[in-house]
Specification:
The complex is a heterodimer of chains A (273) and B (225). Chain A is α/β, with parallel strands linked by helices. Chain A folds into 2 domains: 134 residues, 3-Layer(aba) Sandwich (D-Maltodextrin-Binding Protein, domain 2); 86 residues, D-Maltodextrin-Binding Protein, domain 2. In chain A, 43% of the residues lie in helices and 23% in strands. Chain A starts with a helix and ends in an 11-residue tail after the last helix. Chain B has one domain: MetI-like fold (Orthogonal Bundle), CATH 1.10.3720.10. In chain B, 76% of the residues lie in helices and 0% in strands. Chain B is built from 8 helices and no strands. The longest helix of chain B is centred in the C-terminal third of the chain and has 33 residues. The radius of gyration of chain B is 21 Å and the shape is elongated. Classes of the chains: A alpha/beta (273), B mainly alpha (225). Chains A and B meet through α5, β10 and α9 of A and α3 and α7 of B.
Amino acid sequence: MKTMRRSVLGALAFGVLSASLGWSPAAEAQQQQSVLSDVLKRGVLRIATIGGNPPYSSLDPSGKPVGYDIDIANLLAEQLKLKPEFIVVDVPGRITALQTRRADVTFANFTANVERSKVIAFTDPYVVVGSIYMVKKDSPIQTVEQLNDPKYKIGFARGGTAEGISALTAPKAQKVRFDTVGDAYLAMQSGQVDSHLQDSLQNASYMAKDGDKYRNLPGNWSYEEISIGLPAGDFDWWRVLNIFVKNLNGSGENARIFKKWFGYDMPPIQQKF
Amino acid sequence: MYEFNLAGLLPYTGPLPRAIVLTLWLSTLSILLSVAVGVLGALCRTSTSLILRWIGGAYVEVLRNIPLLVVIYLIFFGLAQVGLRVDGFNSALIALTLNAGAYMTEIFRGGLTAIPRGQYEAARSQGMTGYQLYRYVVFPQVFRIIYAPLGNLMIGIVIGSSLASVIGVEEVTTWMRRAGDETFRYMESFLAVGVIYVVLAQTINIGRIVTGRWLLSRAPIGHRR
């Protein structure tokens, strides 16, 4: 009896001490728990996406996200039998949302690269894109070499891959960073920047709509695998998402959704070297 | 779990001094210009001319009721659409000045209406000109009244200048977002910039207190020299 009381006291003391230090075996187990079991328990899949980035993702007049990425995200939620819940973040917020576990996945025209992979994880790609410099039709700029001049301004959305691509391809030009791709496009439209560095597929849909007003500078300046983002260090969750991507690509469902939003056939997802 | 590591930001502190200078420069210019706008606006609002009163009133009510962010967008994107291209820094400066100018107008008007009419009449009866009346009687008293509310607004301007980041002005908030983007230490960059803004706002505030003390010691009411 006495020993038992002592052990109870000991357990209590241990509990108080570990709670005050912010550590407990239970909390540690919870930290290592997979997002997979979290979402299945919750019944809700929290999806981070960005606004102002058509046709990948943008907000309809009622504030609901719509687009290619959104349809794919809904498909994932449907296959997992979960209720989708969208969190609209800005471009850098795609990473923060995963780091802070506010979101379970990111569907947001999100390029997988080594830099980002240090802090979050990616699946295999569901679409592959490049980067293109767009200018106004009457612009004096003909090539990216000409654009590489301190008198010209290049606009793009901050926190994306355009930052590094512009630094490599036109280091001398001025860079103007905006919150969304839409803002950067508007800045080129209104003449506040001379060129907009944009995603090549997005470029194709902009050209389809406003091709009489703009043209592209020759050259494709990046190879970017657009993938689903997830918190780092979660093999179980990655396994599920990667199976989803492989089936999405193989079943032709991806190509169907792509055509719906981009208006033309999907370019092949394959590494060309 | 998110591991907090402030040192992660260190490699990116290079462009920070320039960003701080730009925030201070943008805020200081906005403060000076909006004081000028505020004095003019308040004189309009308290003028005997109905048209001037109406113009002053319309300016205050319109600019005070449009969010600063929207004013920035209107000037940067809107004016450019009609061919008037104002660069990022100047767009932010104009927007901050117009926005803060409306509040300044109200602060100065409050100060002006606090001066009893009898003083105007007394000064006039002493043979003071309009300039002398305002220079020696009205403004020294107004200054004492508006001195404190002015401090609030100045801090508001420093904080409001962070919105210039949406049109690509390379000030402190833009630095914060770029440092976060490059290092992925977002929480650290938010926290660091929070501290920087406290210091910047207080720098401006201390500047106000010092200038205020100096002006008050130089311009005593009446002839108490």
